[in-house]
Amino acid sequence: MEENTTGTIILAALSTLTPLQMSAFTNNISALFHFHQRRLASLLSSRTLFSLTLHHLHSLSLHQKSFLIARHLLSTLSHLTATRMPPNTVTILNDRDRDCVLLLLLLCEVHQHEPDSLKTLSPVHWRGSLSKYVSKTTLTLSGLRLSSSDTLLKYIEVVTRCRKFVDVMGCGDGKERKEVAASVAAVVALPSVEVKIGGKECAICKEEMKLGRDVCELPCEHQFHWMCILPWVTKRNTCPCCRHRLPTDDVYGEIERQWKVLVKIGDSFH
């Protein structure tokens, strides 16, 4: 049920893209997948790199593994929401963390489709078994390109697998997360606009915003005095009027925020 819900939400959001946006999205995702496939191929072809990555993966706690998957999920979601919200620095993974995520996702996939293939092997022999599985199931490693429909299906599959993993780890329980500060990048990106209609008041200080004065406008189009809104967004990431959420540097909060954006986009289309 959860997988169907996740796929439905992603499909609904994708259906709102214009042909030009869809083409750009598909190209970006295709390039991302090919990059990940090259990283995975390098990882599996190098005994040393595989050993180091597997050792680091084993050293991580369950929460740390979930956190890495969550960042990977957020990065993947950001490709779909990029036209609607500013990028977030918490999605950036270094090479070691990215390799750990790709290896962890591959292990989960193998466990799902061939649960007995690794049970009889010691970890030092996993590399050969994983390489055989990848070569058997992933034609793109031979240089063949995915079609647009294949790319979209693979995208939905990756999002679904990552979200399911994060939920299983107990970090995506659907509960409201406590408010945290808006990210610095999001605050810096807020525009300054001139007040052109008299009689409007700042919802924070309740004083009138004078004509011709520059004030801050949030993405929801509510306006506030700069001196009022800046202290506000250093403590919470919601609009004082409508609770519209600004990006934060909290990974799980960002997943929840972006997911709600996707749900809203899909609902508005229907």
UniProtKB/TrEMBL annotation:
Entry-linked CDD domains: RING-H2_PA-TM-RING
InterPro entries with a match to the protein in the record: Znf_RING (IPR001841), Znf_RING/FYVE/PHD (IPR013083)
Limits of the RING-type domain: 202-243
Record's keyword terms, sorted: Metal-binding, Zinc, Zinc-finger
Catalytic activities: S-ubiquitinyl-[E2 ubiquitin-conjugating enzyme]-L-cysteine + [acceptor protein]-L-lysine = [E2 ubiquitin-conjugating enzyme]-L-cysteine + N(6)-ubiquitinyl-[acceptor protein]-L-lysine
Pfam families, alphabetized: zf-RING_2
GO-annotated cellular components: cytoplasm
Superkingdom per UniProt: Eukaryota
UniProt-recorded Gene Ontology molecular function terms: ubiquitin protein ligase activity; zinc ion binding
SUPFAM superfamilies: RING/U-box
PROSITE patterns on file: ZF_RING_2
Enzyme class: transferase
EC nos: 2.3.2.27
Keyword Zinc-finger: yes
GO biological process, one term: protein ubiquitination
PANTHER family reported in the protein's UniProt record: E3 UBIQUITIN-PROTEIN LIGASE PRAJA, E3 UBIQUITIN-PROTEIN LIGASE SGR9, AMYLOPLASTIC
Record-given protein name: RING-type E3 ubiquitin transferase
Organism listed in the record: Artemisia annua
